[in-house]
Design brief:
single chain; mainly alpha; Citrate Synthase, domain 1; Cytochrome p450-Terp, domain 2; 2 domains; three-stranded antiparallel β-sheet; two-stranded antiparallel ribbon; binds coenzyme A
């Protein structure tokens, strides 16, 4: 379909809308890299701060730089007394709405303004400061109390988990959350990153760009899937019921959460890594999740084959996505399922920050076209244009 000879792609599928040096998603081979580094390797060998630093600077920090950066993120992550009061008022609201609103309120309170006609580095500092607050905001909203005092130079992943479980988590649990956060920190031009960049492209302030992104991430087709994955495992109950339950969902034309991806035509590499993490943790969900995954993949394949035969075009490859095994990992470490999406947010917010920086560096306002499909209008015949004025001799 074309509008004035332009191609229309629903959902911008297949459209390249920006250039980035941050992450590369190879959907055909099932590979994900950050700044030329394999994320599946980073997940279990690096800390969250090291990977955020890598995204920011394009290289790993030295040990001294890492210590200083971890300290800086920790310092920036403290709420002032006024900010704590603002956030506390939102305690008890739906976690993603509360998080979105709290972050927006803090940005307003801090008086952040448009980055246009200012040094973009100042706005980047504001964005990074807001991103660093995620653990403290989530903890305050969840516990309705001031964030607990934690040992100094405690990493971001540990502080986040500590805030939700209420005590210092085990190194094994911290490693699992850290692996999860590293794997989900950035992912090309996913919907929320795109919306952060669109808002930033208008010159909007730091809070506006991040708030837009949080709203976009909250939907179940994007970051809201892992909670429903756990609901699905609960509803199935035991492995012997998986086939029938899944068949019933597909018959009712419902989506299986944790499967399918816009870009990956093969297994999402993050899903494979988190499956490994869940197995290493000996999560009690592993047995049931493994059976449900097998049943779902077989049923989705059969469903797509039948559809492809009926329609005479290739079916979609629907494989396990990152959210399926996320559910088993986050549940095991003690994160309540109500907070799976805020956990995703606390990780992706670092990727958004770097995309906002990139957007400011080479800004071009996002302004695509739309294909008008409404009623036609009868226009009067165009009035002949008056002759152009002749230059005075
Ligand atoms: C992620 C997702 C939105 C990507 O979808 P997409 O590339 O835009 O593809 P569409 O939504 O157009 O779906 C294409 C077809 O595949 C089907 N499909 C896609 N994912 C499916 C799933 N998880 N379960 C069942 N069917 C699915 C759709 O029903 C649609 O079938 P139809 O053509 O008969 O209507 C989609 O796979 C999905 O909804 N997954 C479940 C939610 C989820 O896990 N989200 C987390 C993503 S990381």
């Amino acid at each position: 379909m074309t509008a004035e000879n332009k191609t229309f792609s629903a959902g911008l599928e297949g459209v390249i809308a920006c250039a980035t040096q941050l992450s590369h998603v190879d959907g055909t081979a099932g590979r994900l890299t950050y700044r030329g580094q394999k994320t599946v390797d980073l997940a279990t060998t690096r800390s969250v701060e090291e990977v955020w630093y890598l995204l920011r600077h394009g290289r790993f920090p030295t040990p001294a730089e890492l210590f200083a950066f971890t300290d800086e993120v920790e310092d920036l992550g403290a709420l002032s007394a006024d900010e704590y009061k603002l956030v506390k008022r939102l305690a008890g609201t739906e976690p993603m709405s509360g998080f979105r609103t709290a972050l927006s309120a803090i940005a307003a309170h801090r008086g952040y303004t448009s980055w246009l006609n200012r040094d973009p580095a100042e706005t980047y500092d504001e964005v990074a400061a807001l991103a660093s607050l995620a653990p403290a905001i989530v903890e305050t909203l969840y516990t309705r109390r001031r964030p607990r005092l934690k040992s100094s130079n405690t990493g971001y992943a540990e502080r986040y988990l500590w805030g939700l479980v209420g005590e210092q988590p085990s190194p094994q649990a911290v490693a699992a959350v850290s692996a999860y956060m590293i794997l989900t920190m950035d992912h090309g031009l996913n919907a929320s990153t795109f919306s952060a960049r669109v808002t930033c492209s208008t010159g909007a302030d730091a809070g506006a760009s991040l708030t837009t992104a949080i709203g976009t991430l909250s939907g179940p087709l994007h970051g809201g899937a892992p909670g429903p994955v756990l609901d699905m495992l609960d509803a199935i109950g035991t492995a012997d019921k998986a086939d029938a339950w899944i068949a019933g969902q597909l018959k009712a034309k419902r989506r299986l959460m944790g499967f399918g991806h816009r870009v990956y035509k093969t297994e999402d590499p993050r899903a494979a890594k988190l499956r490994e993490v869940a197995r290493q943790l000996n999560s009690p969900r592993v047995e049931l999740a493994t059976k449900v995954e097998q049943s779902a993949l077989a049923a989705l394949q059969a469903h797509q084959d039948a559809k492809s035969k009926a329609e005479g075009k290739p079916g979609r490859a629907l494989r396990t996505n990152v959210e399926f095994w996320t559910a088993a990992v986050l549940e095991y470490v003690g994160i309540p399922r109500t907070h799976f999406s805020t956990t995703f947010c606390a990780s992706r917010i670092m990727g958004w920050s770097e995309h906002i920086r990139e957007q400011m560096e080479g800004n071009k306002l996002f302004r695509p076209l739309s294909l008008y499909t409404g009623p036609a209008v009868e226009w009067d015949a165009p009035v002949e244009a008056p002759p152009a004025p002749q230059p005075v001799q």
